[in-house]
């Protein structure tokens, strides 16, 4: 049995100490966002997925680093996936548009 926790995420709380004692904590590495984004572009039907993945990952990293640290901004993978799904729907709606 295992559980996953992300107490830093908005609206989440810490696990009670009594329950923490029943589990062994592990650390998970931060994924390579550029590689994930590249594959998501590919899955959405983009042919220039490598170049787009690099540009998009750079844009998100710069936004995350340079914009104010406000809770209203979400620079996580859920937000990235949402944007790429919408981009894919635009691509499928008009395949003649430039990537």
TrEMBL record:
Residues 1-99 form the Dynein heavy chain hydrolytic ATP-binding dynein motor region domain. Gene3D superfamilies: 1.10.8.710, P-loop containing nucleotide triphosphate hydrolases (3.40.50.300). Pfam families: AAA_6. It comes from the Eukaryota. One of its GO terms (molecular function) is dynein intermediate chain binding. One of its GO terms (biological process) is microtubule-based movement. GO terms for cellular component: dynein complex. This is Dynein heavy chain hydrolytic ATP-binding dynein motor region domain-containing protein. It comes from Alexandrium catenella.
């Amino acid at each position: 049995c295992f559980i996953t926790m992300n107490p830093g995420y908005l609206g989440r709380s810490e696990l009670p100490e009594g329950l923490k004692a029943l589990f062994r904590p592990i650390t998970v590495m931060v994924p390579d966002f550029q590689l994930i984004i590249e594959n998501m572009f590919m899955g959405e039907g983009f042919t220039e997925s490598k170049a787009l993945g690099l540009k998009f990952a750079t844009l998100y990293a710069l936004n995350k680093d340079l914009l104010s640290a406000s809770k209203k901004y979400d620079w996580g993978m859920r937000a990235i996936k949402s944007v790429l799904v919408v981009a894919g729907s635009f691509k499928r709606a008009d395949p003649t548009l430039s990537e």
